[in-house]
Design goal:
77 residues; mainly alpha; 51% helix
């Protein structure tokens, strides 16, 4: 009878140890994934970011686009 109690206590301790280990691994492993990734420039290493502005494209604001451009509406309360 005593052997059964010792075995049951051992199993209980093992279950608790595994549960704590899974909780620690989950907490440590999920923290970086929850953060939003930093923007990266195209063609760059995924672990790097760029602080340089993109090269301006003069063809985007052609005379026709400039003539039809409207300012953004003012916000209303």
């Amino acid at each position: 009878m005593k052997l059964r109690w010792v075995a049951a206590a051992g199993v209980a301790v093992a279950v608790i140890v595994v549960a704590v280990a899974v909780g620690v691994v989950t907490a440590l492993g999920s923290a970086p994934e929850e953060q939003s990734p930093a923007p990266s420039s195209t063609g760059a290493d995924p672990g790097t970011t760029s602080t340089r502005l993109p090269v301006p494209d003069d063809s985007y604001w052609d005379p026709a686009r400039m003539a039809s451009a409207q300012p953004a509406p003012m916000p209303t309360d």
